[in-house]
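wait is this the right file?? whatever heres the structure
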């Protein structure tokens, strides 16, 4: 039976990770997803090549890890999902938590579809069923994409079946709970993913033309560092890659034990995620160099070097050219499937945990009700001939408006409105791990809101003034802004719905008798004027 948390302050039963290692694997599994493999290499290439690694590292240290630690501190201190944690911080803030749940809910709808495509291509790779024209196979034969964007209900059976199977696997894992389900799945999936992807990279760097591909990837364009757009791209990549600011790490950290190491774990997860992205860049550009060599063209002349086109059009074409293509094709698409699954589990756990705590449901009941409902909607929308159009627009809007907006509001609410950053910093430092100084409060309370606020305003302005990817406005508005509106609706409705148990009498773990103030430790008196000792709040 999974170990439970029992708090004498609110009487709730709560699951826990079996230990620090299980949490680290789950957190890395959440961070390492489809975007690591197909987004980072293209973003780096288009924004200065090797020089891009400088703003990328700066963004990791000044935004990625600080927000990751903010998520950790909120979830661990207030012991709950995003809505629970924010409500325990301040009742009016509960809506922010439900907005993050709404964002996660929207992402699960379409993210599962891409995993299903990867699973299908794992099977196709064994026989290289895509033939010579990989673009025609993917868009025409496999997706059977309609000529015009829209929202249709013409089902594609070849997409429907794998999509349904992925949902069955996901719901089954969630129903087993945090320790027996999510943790055990990541213990198997993450090492398997690393081994398979390492095999792909080793093979890729030995291909003819790989050196030219790596030169294109790493050759620095120092002039790019003076372009503000390059720095924005770096912050955007770090932000989207780490699974931060939309409830995942708040939820995951809430299952950690009281004395868990938060700060060192954050560093491991942050740098582990970035290391995988760098590894993906090496593998992808080695393969693209081989493709350019085979075609007798420069890498700059290749198209679709990131996103869906890279994974399902360019890579099948590369696999058809290389020796041992079927074997490495299976490894590549199986890696995509596992990377997607580990991220999907974390995103859906955000939704499941929130409803468990709101209504007192068990993990199994939440998985069946929430997972089952979302699975039906996802299957209906994304097994059709218009799925790719809906997916593309939904992903664009929910990330650039929903996720970035959530981060901006969260940092402003926690840092400026509620002024809880010092408390959360002390909570981080009261546990084993790397000490967090006052720089963290400055970055989270001022630096990150300014940078992400600029990214948010720029993105919204662009979406309002220019039709994304030349889609018609009558498609963009209901689908794109509708996705954001759904997250807002979830926030409004679920905030109004009453809780089935009392969460307001919860008392967080007491801070230690010493609190960091202005770079010095000073005693914090208790109510009776004496220094109080930390209190054992939980767990047997």
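ok assuming it is, sequence goes like this
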């Amino acid at each position: 039976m999974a170990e439970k948390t029992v708090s004498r302050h609110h009487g709730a039963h709560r699951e826990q990770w079996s230990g620090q290692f299980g949490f680290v694997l789950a957190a890395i599994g959440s961070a390492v997803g489809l975007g690591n493999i197909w987004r980072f290499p293209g973003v780096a290439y288009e924004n200065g090549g090797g020089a891009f690694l400088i703003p990328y590292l700066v963004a990791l240290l000044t935004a990625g890890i600080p927000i990751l630690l903010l998520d950790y501190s909120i979830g661990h201190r207030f012991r709950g999902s995003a809505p629970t944690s924010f409500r325990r911080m301040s009742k009016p803030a509960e809506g922010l938590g439900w907005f993050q749940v709404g964002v996660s809910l929207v992402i699960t709808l379409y993210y599962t579809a891409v995993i299903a495509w990867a699973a299908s291509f794992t099977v196709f790779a064994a026989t290289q069923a895509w033939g010579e024209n990989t673009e025609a196979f993917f868009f025409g034969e496999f997706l059977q994409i309609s000529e015009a964007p829209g929202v249709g209900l013409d089902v594609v059976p070849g997409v429907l079946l794998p999509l349904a199977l992925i949902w069955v696997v996901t719901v089954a894992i969630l129903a087993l709970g945090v320790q027996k389900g999510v943790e055990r799945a990541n213990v198997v999936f993450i090492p398997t993913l690393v081994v398979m992807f390492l095999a792909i990279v080793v093979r890729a760097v030995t291909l003819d033309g790989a050196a030219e591909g790596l030169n294109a990837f790493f050759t620095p364009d120092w002039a790019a560092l003076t372009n503000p757009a390059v720095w924005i791209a770096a912050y955007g990549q770090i932000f989207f890659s780490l699974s931060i600011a939309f409830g995942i790490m708040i939820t995951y950290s809430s299952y950690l034990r009281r004395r868990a190491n938060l700060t060192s774990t954050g560093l491991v997860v942050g740098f582990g995620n970035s290391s995988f992205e760098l590894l993906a860049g090496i593998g992808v550009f080695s393969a693209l160099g081989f493709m350019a060599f085979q075609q007798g063209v420069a890498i700059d002349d290749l198209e679709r070097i990131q996103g869906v086109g890279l994974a399902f059009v360019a890579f099948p074409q590369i696999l058809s050219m290389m020796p041992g293509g079927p074997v490495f094709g299976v490894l590549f698409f199986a890696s995509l499937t596992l990377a997607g699954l580990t991220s999907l589990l974390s995103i859906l756990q955000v939704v499941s945990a929130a409803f468990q705590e709101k209504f007192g449901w068990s993990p199994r009941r939440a998985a069946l009700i929430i997972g089952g409902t979302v699975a039906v909607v996802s299957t209906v929308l994304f097994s059709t001939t218009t799925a790719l159009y809906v997916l593309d627009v939904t992903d664009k809007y929910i990330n650039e408006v929903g996720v970035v907006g959530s981060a901006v509001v969260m940092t402003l609410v926690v840092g400026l409105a509620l002024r809880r950053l010092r408390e959360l910093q002390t909570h981080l430092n009261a546990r084993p791990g790397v000490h967090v100084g006052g720089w963290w409060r400055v970055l989270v309370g001022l630096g990150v809101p300014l940078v992400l606020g600029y990214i948010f305003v720029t993105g919204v302005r662009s979406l309002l003034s220019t039709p994304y990817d030349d889609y018609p406005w009558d498609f963009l508005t209901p689908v794109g802004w509708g996705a954001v509106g759904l997250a807002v609706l979830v926030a409004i409705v679920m905030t109004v719905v009453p809780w089935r148990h009392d969460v307001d009498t919860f008392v967080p773990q007491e801070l230690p008798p010493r609190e960091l103030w202005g770079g010095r430790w000073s005693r914090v008196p208790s109510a009776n004027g004496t220094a109080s000792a930390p209190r054992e709040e939980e767990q047997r």
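The longest helix spans residues 325-359. so i think its the right one actually
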